[in-house]
Amino acid sequence: MAANDSEDNASPDGDPLRYATDFHAPVLSHDVQARLVTASGGRYVDATLGGGGHARSLLDALGPDAVVLGIDQDPDALATARDRLAEAREAGCFRAVRGNFGDLERLLRAEDFVPVDGILLDLGVSSHQIDAPERGFSFQADGPLDMRMDPRRGLTARQVVNAWPERDLREALRDYGDERRAGRIAHAIVEARPLDTTGDLADTVRGAVPPPDEVKTLARVFQALRIVVNAELDMLERALEQSTAVVRPGGRIATISYHSLEDRRVKRYLRYGNFEGTPRRDLYGNRVAPWTETPRGPIEASEEEVAANPRARSARLRVAERQDDEEMGPPVP
Ligand SMILES: C[S@@+](CC[C@H](N)C(=O)[O-])C[C@H]1O[C@@H](n2cnc3c(N)ncnc32)[C@H](O)[C@@H]1O
Question: Residue 211: helix, strand or coil by DSSP?
């Protein structure tokens, strides 16, 4: 159940595409802006800078002394956002660094940017990444089997598809794509080797799964491979844990997830401070957790936003406030 209704999250000027560009249309930008910013002169991190839409919206909500630091592992995103936010950069309100948010703490310390007042994680891929056939993320266009958000990373989808044992492929499709015909598809992939392009992979999956299910199946297979190639869930867990070390007490984190594998991890960590979802209590029986979700539960896009930007349909925004460790007291071992 969403924590707010559609009226609450309409953008202030009524246009949910206010911060959209051809590169990417950010989702829930008004909610992020309204709920993440608690200090108008503060320091904020957009750890998934993309085309700079959310960063722009944060800068619009912040005062002239505030600084937004953007992080992205994709050089196309950095170049685009730096260009878009050139004025803020010149004014000293915006900077951008290339890196993986799995190294969040190290990146921020290197920039002398700890503690911070807030962090945004808008997970997954940008529209630009999906739309560029040469990046290999899409089953709707033919391109190399790549799928790396960071082109410097070693592992490509081509290696996974052509070299992984059938059993590992099957597990990846099942665990990261929630694909119930993972066995049949993994077997077809192994039989069809070598696969060269996204078109080869899409044809192989189509051959293994009869219509009318093929589009949903293709989406699940491509999602699973993308998660593997970019180690997305590991990086998310690392970023969440490190955010606890860099956000000041009273500061906030906002995360936007697009599927349940992400959202489950975010929910458990923000509620319990661990990924198992195990409540911890102090000597007096009080709950001990580094974050308090505010509001409790996900915020979803309005019908108006989903109509304008279909990508918003699956988005789940969670916001949490960093608790004071001393007030929490030590957990019972
Ligand atoms: C959904 S888009 C963000 C769009 C952005 N909020 C905007 O308004 O344009 C996600 C971005 O995060 C980046 N990204 C994903 N995982 C990352 C990671 N582990 N480290 C750094 N950047 C990452 C992607 O390259 C992509 O540009």
Answer: coil
